[in-house]
Amino acid sequence: MKVLKYFLIAILVICLDQTSKLLVHKYMYLHEEVNVIGEWFKFHYLLNPGMAFGIRWDSEFGKLALTVFRIFAMFGIGYYLFQMERKKSHAGFLVCLALILGGAIGNVIDSTFYGVFLDNAPIDSPTKWFHGQVIDMLFFPIADFIWPEWVPFLGGEYFLFFSPVFNIADSSIFIGVVSILIFQKRFFQEKEETATEEIKSESNIESTSISTTEIQPPPSNI
Q1: Has 17 been annotated as catalytic?
Q2: Structural domain spans, the chain
């Protein structure tokens, strides 16, 4: 089945994501920072109990709801990918869905199992299942400076661009979503053109059939 190649893309994302997280967990200590490329790309080991890019949801119910939502979203995206491939959607769109699916599953694994197998659930969690913290490590502090004192409200404050710490799963989801937004006309225009061509083809067949019927000579009486 052609759809398998898109699920293989998702599996590749999952493998890369989980491998990077487990290596960071094994060889780095929490909050350790290692320079990769100068000062603007670093590995920074963080545990994120919330959403992507370090966004947190400070609520016990919120964490459980987020994990459950991720699980349902994972199955929903997988089913949607399967259906879109059957409808012969644009290959680029299917790749984007595969990236989103792989990223979603990567973070679901963290939230569901890491609390038990890596023992990283928050101390106040009622259960370690479904309360695992997502491992983040990619950090791009591209620029930092102190706002001049004359800047209203911000004078003297420290500013860092880009401050979120994230992982490969987050990146995969982000790339998939942004690519769909950027190339949506290309992805969906081809589908519309195909549907239009099919309608025209059916119309031509019907017109030919009608014309053939109309030009048939009447039976002659001998």
Answers
A1: no
A2: 3-196
